[in-house]
Design goal:
Structural class: mainly alpha
Mean pLDDT: 92
Number of strands: 2
Bound molecules: zinc ion
Number of domains: 1
Distance between the termini: 36 Å
Shape: globular
Largest sheet: 2 strands, antiparallel
Number of helices: 2
Helix content: 40-55%
Radius of gyration: 14 Å
Length: about 80
């Protein structure tokens, strides 16, 4: 479903959170910049990113931060060899 907000929408919170993680891996945002969290839209019923705080608890989860760090390194490496 298309949302009147014009934002990318995700069917579930899980999908939105995964996309949020991927977004941060690929864009290398400074701390506190870029999309901070996901929310359920009152308009379309799907999930979008928001750049407003509070930041998602994903960003204080050590396992997820480790994973982001690892994936970011392999992503940077892939870009270098291409
Ligand atoms: Zn929406």
């Amino acid at each position: 479903m298309r949302c009147s907000s014009g934002k990318t929408s995700f069917e579930s919170k899980e999908l939105a959170e995964e996309a949020l993680i991927q977004n941060h891996i690929r864009s290398n945002h400074r701390k506190g910049s870029g999309p901070q969290n996901v929310y359920e839209c009152q308009d379309c019923g799907e999930w979008h990113f928001t750049s407003r705080p509070p930041a998602s608890e994903l960003f204080s989860d050590k396992d997820i931060l480790n994973r982001m760090d690892l994936e970011r390194r392999s992503y940077d490496w892939e870009r270098k060899v291409k």
